[in-house]
Amino acid sequence: MKLGLQLGYWQKHPTPRFIELAQVAESLGFDSVWTAEAYGSDCFTPLAAIAASTKRIRLGTGVMQISARTPTCAAMTALTLDHISNGRLILGVGVSGPQVVEGWYGQPFTKPLERTREWIRIFRRAIAREEPLEFHGEQYNLPCNNGMGLGKPLKSITHPLRKRIPVVLGAEGPKNVALAAEAFDGWLPIFCSPYKMDIFADSLQAAGPDFEIAAMVNLAINDDLQQALVPGKWTMALYLGGMGAKGMNFHKNLLGRMGYADDAQKIQDLFLAGRQQEAVDAVPDALVDEISLLGPQARIRERLQDWKKARVSSLLIGHSGDFDLTVANMEFLARELL
User: Which of 153, 197, 241, 278 is an S-S bond match for 134, by CB 3.0 to 4.6 Å?
Assistant: First the structure.
């Protein structure tokens, strides 16, 4: 099983010493380092800085929002960073949600599955650079058909280092996960449980033997299991209550399929009512525990065996917010798995 470091997106200020953390991950034998974006920092610029200061570790976006960049803009950025890093980019993409897409990017959040399917087709062709690019779909038109009529099919001026850059899809719903298996090189699940991978079995039928599943896992080494649960409970309450609209929350839908529908509804109701601590308290310990690696080292060591048996190729651990603690977490996992 491979290991990755998920640096996420910057909060109020840039993540301190993020380049150094990536260098430590590389020195420990980690396979990948990932950055994200929401509606603040972007995912590519930190990776470019990391690329200049590392040699081997793969550079992942987890995830780039497809509404932020047209397929050809993303292809330009990807082929540039792939050259700079000597072929180390792995592009993780996702649709985000209606609050961000419509509120931040000013685009309608309509037919996201169709948009994603067309997006990857255009991206692949732009990177391959085998012919002038022309595409006419429901979501994208190249050249556009509502302008001056002067556009013409083009090929990238810059030749790609690789004609196929690996692209993985961040997805939660059954149809989106199925699209990942059909058209992408891998899948980035969130809130993934090694004990309930069967809920994705039908969606993953089309996945080939090299299909990558890189699962984000919360790691907290603490002899007090209850204390170790606290950060994960806060994260779950935030995602169910604050990261998605009340009537369209993909995280809530996923937890329903995992068997926590009633709990998810209660958590969302409490959070949206301004009762955040009660929402946190309502998050089941069992839920946070099964999607995380928590507790004393011996307990985590046992739980790692369950992850090894699951259909997961990479474990991505998050930045804890403290440099030394994150390094200690990485060192522990490297000793256990690498």
Answer: 153
